[in-house]
Each structure stands twice: as C-alpha cells, then as structure tokens.
Amino acid sequence: MKIFKSYCRIIYYFRFYMKLTFSPHTLYFKRPFKIAHGTRSSTPIVLTQLEHEGIIGYGEASLPPYLSESHQTVLEFLNRATPIIKILQNPVDIEFVLNEIDKIAPNNIAAKASIDIALHDLVGKLKNEPCWKHFSCIKGNTPFTTYTLGIDEPEIIKLKIKEGEEYKYFKVKLNGENDKQIINTIREVTDKPIAIDVNQGWRDKYIALEMINWLSDKNVLFIEQPLQKDNYEDSHWLFERSPLPIFADESIQRYSDIDYAKNCFHGINIKLMKCTGMFEAHKMIKRARELNLKLLIGCMSETSCAISAAAQLTPLVDYADLDGALLIKNNLFKGVDFYEGKIILNEMPGIGAVPVS
Ligand code: MG
Fold it and tell me: Of 108, 132, 248, 289, which is least packed with CB atoms within 10 Å of its CB?
C-alpha cells in the first residue's frame, strides 16, 4: 500500500509539473538589413518550450546585437529558470509565475519574454482560448502592418517597394546621411503613406525639426525615435514644435518608462523583446491609453512565433510594425497571416503559431 501511494505521488508530480526546454538558432535575412545601428545579415534567437500535462507552449527570444543579450546570456538565464519553473505547478496564475521568473535576475528582458510568450501559449491551449480573447480583443480590429525598407541604394529601395507592393504602408529607416535622397527615391515610385524610423540617427534637435518640416507634406504617418534615447530635454523641445506625431522606441522600454513619454512623444512603440513579453505589454497599453498616447506594436527580426504573440494584442493599438518574419529566409514557425498587410488573427488556442516541421 505504501509503495502504491508513493507511486501515485510520483505520477501526480510528473503530471502537473512544468518543464522548460530551449534551443539557440540563427535567423537569416533575405537581404542585408541596414539601419542607423549598422548592417547585419542575421539575428540570433532562442526558442523555448513550456510543457504541462502533455501540452506544449512555444516562446522566443530575439537578440539583435545592439541590445545587451546574446545566446550565452539567454541560455544561462533559462538554465537558472529551469528548476524554478519545475516547482511552479499552476501555469494558469500567469502573474505569479512571471514574478517568480523576474526575481531570478534583473534585465535579461528577451529571455524573460521567451518564457512569458511560451506561458501565454501554454495557458491559452490549456483553456482552449486564443490569447486575443484572453486580452478581451475584438479579432477583426487589427491594424495593417508596415513593410520595412532598410537603408539602401536607390535601385534596391525600388526593388523592395516592388516586393512589398501588397502592403498599404511602408516603414522607412533613415540615419541622417542620405535621408532626402531615400525619400525622393520612394516618392518617385509610390505615394503610399510611410512611417519614418530614425533609430536615434539625427544628430541634434535643429536637424530633426528641419527634416520633420521637410517631411510634413510627404504623406508621413509619424516619426519614430528621431533623437538619442535618453535626451528627454531635446525630445520635449521637438515634441512641442513638430508638425508630425513623434513616437518613442528606444526611449521607452518598460512599463515604468511610460510616464516619461507623455511630455516628449505623441506615441510609443511597444515590443515584447523590450518589455519582458505579453503580460507587461498589455499593462503598458492600458497605461499609455490613460495618458492619451498613440500606440504602435513593433518587433525585432523574429519568427512567426514571437510575431504571432505580439499580433494577439494588436486590436488594442493604432499601428503595427510586425513584418519581422517576412524579412527572413528561415521562418521556423507558421502563425498569423496578413491580407494586403492587415493582420489576420486565427482561432487557434494560445498565440496561434506552430513550428514548421
Ligand atoms: Mg524603431
């Protein structure tokens, strides 16, 4: 009888515990990708799996080199998280689980996001509910994604516009070098609305204002991160004078940063890899709305795993820049779709993405 009871206890334990597994990968761009931070042809990522009751949730950390995380730091963090995850037997209490993960070490934002995404996917599957429903979203209220044009020679830019002709909006990367030439090249071939992303590339507030004035009659939706991320004083100066809306990206990373945005920016770009994942992104959306900020959900170069996770929240925002998986050669997941750029959420439980076998 005693042996039988021990056996039952072991079966009970192995049925209900959570298991974390993970593996490093590299995503390769279809074309070299140049922005103000530099040019690259690949991005390291780590894929995670959280298993409970035989059901698997999928997650991802994307690690562009200008941020502080790498394969090594993410694998170290996830190795530390593994025994902690194992003793957390109730994945459905998402906030509790994520608080325990957050206590392991500060920073490691993308590593934490990979657990957050896998946890939301797992819980969605356990409840048989898509994440967009979990966040009380209306499925059809998704925005159109922009299609990104990196910094390139005129003939490459024209080729990329042709490749992205089904998309309604382009996102144009500038860096303060040949900006007017890039915009003039685009306007030779299309009058579609464009969003501008400077990635902190304009040297000072006067150059920024002159450029924004020049862009103001060129069908531009908004200007993203024109100045250095910690230059709130000049950002405030520009915010008061700009004829176009200005969005923060690098300046606003986490929930605790949002209140800085209200006097310096008209909107913010929320990314799962900057804010530890879907749980905090949702909190940021609610706070930003209280402050009357416009909202964009963006991405790094990611597979359709992290893209689909971010897409679950897009019915709550004004704009989306979720073309990360469209720009890579080796998308390791199949997930949300796009129709002429509009994000099409599916009915699959969780984040709505499955690995490509
Ligand atoms: Mg940006």
Answer: 289
Specify the pLDDT at position 166. Answer: 95
**Cα(276) to centroid(ligand 1), Å:** 17
Please tell me the distance from the alpha carbon of residue 257 to that of residue 198, in angstroms, as a whole number.
Answer: 20
How many angstroms does the Cα of residue 323 sit away from the middle of ligand 1?
13
What is the signed CA dihedral for 135, 262, 141, 270, rounded to 10 degrees?
Answer: -60
- 53 C-alpha vs ligand 1 centroid, how far in Å? 39
Euclidean distance between CA atoms 309 and 79, whole angstroms: 23
Which distant-in-sequence residues (6+ apart) come within 8 Å of 189 by Cβ?
A: 158, 161
Q: Does domain 2-128 have CATH number 3.40.120.10?
A: no
- The CATH-assigned architecture of domain 133-355 is Alpha-Beta Barrel (3.20)
pLDDT tens digits for range 158-174? 999 999 999 999 999 99
Give the closest residue to 147 by CA, choosing from 356, 319, 23, 336. Answer: 319
**pTM of the complete model:** 0.93
CA dihedral angle for residue 78, residue 81, residue 87, residue 91, rounded to 10 degrees: -70
CB atoms within 10 A of CB 146: 27
Q: Domain locations in the chain? A: 2-128, 133-355
Residue 225 CA, ligand 1 centroid: distance in Å: 7
pLDDT for res 2: 54
Distance 74 CA to ligand 1 centre (A): 23
Ligand 1 centroid – CA 61 distance (Å): 17
* Rounded distance between C-alpha atoms, residue 323 and residue 303, angstroms: 10
Query: Strands 146-149, 169-173: parallel, antiparallel or unpaired by DSSP?
Result: parallel
